[in-house]
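Hey,
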Amino acid sequence: MIFAAITFLAGIALAVVESTFVKAAAIGGIRPDLVVVVVVVATCSLGFGRAIMLAFMLGLARDFYSGGILGMSSFSLTFTAFVLIVAEDYLLTDNWKAQTFVVFLGSLIYGSLLVVLKLIVGYELTSPFLILKMIAWTSVYTSVLGALGFALVKTPEPPPYGRLKMKYDVEHETLHQSKI
C-alpha cells in the first residue's frame, strides 16, 4: 500500500515535470515521454508485481493529472510493462544500444495502444499518417533518454557467491600426492 501511494505521488510529480520542463525540450511539437522511460527501466529492474503496480499507478497519476479518461494511460502502461516482462528473457539490456531499443519498443507499444483505446472510446483523430509519424518520432525521442535512465538506475551486479567460490577453488586446486 505504501509503495502504491509513493508511486502515485511520484507519478504526479513526474506529470508536473513533463508538463513544464519537458515541454520546453520539445522539438517540433514532439517531446520525450518520461513516464514510459521510468516504466521500462523499472520493468527491467524490479520484479513482476512491483513493475505492474508501478506502471498502473504512474498511469493512473497521469490520467488524474491530465484530466482525460481515467484508466487509458494506466491500462496502456500496465500492458506495456506486462509485454516487456514477458519478453524480458529475450530482451538483453546489457549495453546502451539494447537499452535504447527496449525503451523504443516500450514507447511504441504504449503509443499504439493509446491510439487504439482513443479510437475505441470515440475520439476524432487526424490522419493515420500523422498519428504514426507522431508515435514513431516520440518513440525515437523517448528512446534517446532510455539509455540515460538505465545508466542512472542499473549498476553492475557482482557475480553470485557460488560462481566466485568455484573460480577460487579452480585457481587454488591442489593435486593429491598420489597423482603426482
